[in-house]
Amino acid sequence: MLRKLMFAMLTVAVAGCLVGCGKRRATITGPEGEKTTVEMDRSGEKMKLTIRSDEGEAQVEISEDVDLSGLGVEIYPGAEPQAGTTYKGEGFEGVEMTSVALETSDAFDKVAEFYKSKYAEGAAAVVQQPGSLMISKEEETRNVTVAVTRDEDEQITNIGITVVMKAEE
Fold first, then answer.
1. Number of C-alpha atoms within 13 angstroms, CB side, residue 88?
2. What is the distance between the alpha carbons of residues 43 and 49, in angstroms, rounded to a whole number?
3. Which of 41, 69, 92, 132 has the smallest number of Cβ neighbours within 10 A?
4. Helix (H) or strand (E) holding 90
5. What CA–CA distance (Å, rounded) separates 134 from 104?
6. 124-165 per-position pLDDT tens digit
7. What secondary structure letter does DSSP report for 76?
């Protein structure tokens, strides 16, 4: 399991090296001879990664144009979307994941209280330290993780929301 996780991380690292305009492609070989192909297609403010292996295909889309309507998570009032990522995998246990990054100039404590009031009850984990909050909540059909941090230099509170849909059994 650890080897597969490390290989997946390597695949993402290779994908990161493909950054640039247009289309790019790389094939890497894993520790047991398995091959994974990563294709990147970047046009304008969108980037689409397609990862193919013997286990299936996964697609990752990264965009500055974020659609919050299908997320199903309450968004802090006035928070502005910065970027979004959508991941869909076939053969990779049917995982679907959506992540968004948001910003607000409101104080960290105000934003943290908003998300704690919405998601802390019944959460699997609530971790808060000065200037950071992470809530992870398992729901019937999905897992929701909310992270809130404060950038004092920029006077910005950052909000990261990730929703992972559970694979149907």
1. 2
2. 12
3. 69
4. strand 80-90
5. 17
6. 889 988 889 999 998 888 889 999 998 878 789 999 888 888
7. P
